[in-house]
């Protein structure tokens, strides 16, 4: 009997760890990211990715994971995640995904791919000024095979920053949280 109770309790451990709701874990990851711990946030986003969510929710998780990895200087890994995100991303998220992908590609010395990614972002959203500025900035940079600039030349300005704000989770992601909430008037944002 004692052994059966112990086995039952051990079986409940993973459920207790997963007991924290999807939305709460997402918010915890966002807080870690904003606190300057992007790789810790990435760990949580990976767990959320493994929760079986699909569609727009999965695309947002991939965007958040890729952005966290990018900010944490895990450039090659962020490139892979952003490419995975493009495959499942809704149209409205693709320009932002492509923009951050371009940052990761540029950091991994893949200049031409970064430019192509930015071109795609600009085609999808012609008013995306950050993408246009980053595209122009990359064009001003000397390709790696060229000699360094002369001493009398002024260095180019730094690139525009990556998009660091994370999109809010879609409302369908919160349905289970809101239904279990003791306060039915709770608004997630």
Q: Tell me which oligomeric state these chains represent.
A: single chain
Main sheet: strands, sense, barrel: none
Order of helices and strands: HHHHHHHHH
Beta-strand share of residues: under 5%
What Rg do the Cα atoms give? 21 Å
Share of helical residues: 55-70%
Query: What is the residue-mean pLDDT, rounded to a whole number?
Result: 78
Give the overall form: globular
Structural class: mainly alpha
- Helical stretch tally: 9
Distance between the termini: 48 Å
Number of strands: 0
User: Can you tell me the residue ranges where pLDDT is under 50 for at least 5 consecutive residues?
Assistant: 1-18, 181-189
How would you describe the overall organization of this protein?
With 189 residues, the protein is mainly α. It is 62% helix and 0% strand. The protein is built from nine helices and no strands. Helix 2 packs antiparallel against helix 3, helix 4 (55-71) packs antiparallel against helix 5 (75-88) and helix 6 (94-107) packs antiparallel against helix 7 (111-124). The longest helix is centred in the middle third of the chain and has 17 residues, at 55-71. Residues 1-18 and 181-189 have low confidence and may be disordered.
List the helices and strands and how they pair.
Blueprint: H1 2-17, H2 22-34, H3 38-49, H4 55-71, H5 75-88, H6 94-107, H7 111-124, H8 129-140, H9 175-179
Helix pairs in contact: 2-3, 3-4, 4-5, 4-6, 5-6, 6-7, 7-8
Short description:
This protein is mainly alpha-helical and 189 residues long.
Keywords:
single chain, 189 residues, mainly alpha, 9 helices, globular, disordered N terminus
